[in-house]
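Cross-check.
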Amino acid sequence: MRSTIVPRRKFVFVVDDDPSMLRGMKRLLREHGFDAKLFDSASALLSHGDFGGAFCIILDIDLNTESGIDLRRRLAREGVALPVIYITGNDSQGNRRAAMESGCVAYLTKPFAAKSLIEPVARASAAAV
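Predicted model, tokenized:
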């Protein structure tokens, strides 16, 4: 009898409209053994559409004219249940509350320590096995 091996989800999807932030996140994730797929907008992520290879999404709250929180809600309505880690340079009580209500596993304000990002990514990776 042959056992079927299910491939492990291996990508972190990172959505941020700042190209330098995307490059830095990719480098940091790679240093800790994670592969990243980068998206510079909500529409780029939605156009990609293949969420099967991802185990979590790192999502900026302020995406040019788009809201990362609204994107998270849309993904949830469409059945995408990946863990979300929010990052923001615009911390406010309203953003924090909306992020928590939308179902995130972490909420980080820029600049943040590498460890504060890698820990929730590692937990999401372990849960996806």
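The CA atoms of residues 11 and 80 lie 15 Å apart. The domain at 11-127 is CATH 3.40.50.2300 (Rossmann fold). Passed to J.P. for a second look.
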